[in-house]
Specification:
Rossmann fold, eight-stranded mixed beta sheet, alpha/beta, globular, 10 helices
């Protein structure tokens, strides 16, 4: 099912920007004493909320970088602009940092992503948000993290949460097979094909949360095809809340980074997906 036909309708309802508020560098893990110095450094998030609003939806967004690089504070990741753009439309945005390879190996960065999502569910009400309307997503490797947290029930179990805590997953150009960095950590080929417990596609079934898949017309080699395979396999499994958007005239970087632009099709698709799924929560 495609969302492009709904984008103009949604755009017409979000023309007026909402004032926002930013809270930076919140530690999202409680057990600070038991954390390594690297964990204490990286396991922090920024929260951008629509000022004065109540009961709003929240989107936890993970940047890309191949699980090897990236930061919420690096300008080229556009995290600040993306969260500001979405928050101006009334959706709070959480942008976490997470530990990176090779300083850590799988599943450390997935565990961090799960902890950041769990923090949001447990604390967003303190900032005016609705804990039943917490979505998760990201770009590239960040999208892979979002899918693993939102599709594998074992990721959230240590936090006392279930997949029912995930209002929906809006992911952009994820690697849905086992990520090449994880394969490299195992001494395998970067270009080998693996689909095991580290792969989002491994967890496809009818009962997982709603998913929006966005990818680029000129995405990186095999990434568009991987996302099309993912969408088709979800459909085959009977997963009905399964949406997809191919954004024309974008490559692997710009399909994620351009979400900061108000008229960007991927941005509008994400906002429409969040609005649609929030209505039933």
């Amino acid at each position: 099912m495609h969302l492009l036909g709904l984008l103009l309708c949604f755009a017409a309802t979000t023309a007026t920007a909402i004032e926002t508020k930013v809270i930076k560098d919140i530690s999202y893990k409680d057990d600070v004493i038991s954390q390594t110095p690297y964990e204490q450094e990286r396991c922090k998030l920024d929260l951008t909320v629509p000022a004065g609003a109540k009961g709003y939806a929240t989107y936890v967004w993970f940047y890309g970088g191949g699980l090897k690089k990236g930061s919420k504070d690096v300008p080229t990741e556009y995290c600040a602009e993306i969260r500001e753009s979405l928050a101006q439309a009334g959706v709070a945005v959480v942008t976490p940092d997470y530990r990176l390879s090779p300083k850590v190996k799988y599943p450390a960065y997935v565990d961090d992503a799960a902890a950041a999502f769990a923090w949001t569910v447990k604390h967003i009400a303190e900032h005016g948000g609705d804990p039943h309307k917490v979505f998760i997503g990201g770009h590239s490797a960040g999208a892979t993290l979002a899918l693993l947290v939102g599709m594998d029930p074992n990721r959230l179990k240590p936090h006392g949460l279930t997949l029912g805590s995930v209002a929906g997953i809006a992911q952009v150009s994820a690697q849905v097979l086992t990520h090449y960095t994880i394969r490299e950590e195992r001494g395998q080929s970067r270009f080998g094909i693996t689909c095991d417990e580290a792969a989002p596609a491994f967890y496809i079934k009818k009962s997982i949360p709603p998913i929006l898949t966005i990818y680029a017309q000129n995405d990186m080699l095999s990434r568009a095809e991987e996302n099309m395979f993912f969408v088709a396999t979800l459909k085959s499994a009977g997963h009905t809340e399964n949406y997809s958007v191919r954004v024309d005239d974008r490559d692997h970087s710009t399909v994620g980074h351009n979400i900061r632009n108000l008229d960007d099709p991927a941005r509008l698709a994400i906002l429409n997906f969040i609005a649609k799924q929030s209505a039933s929560r």
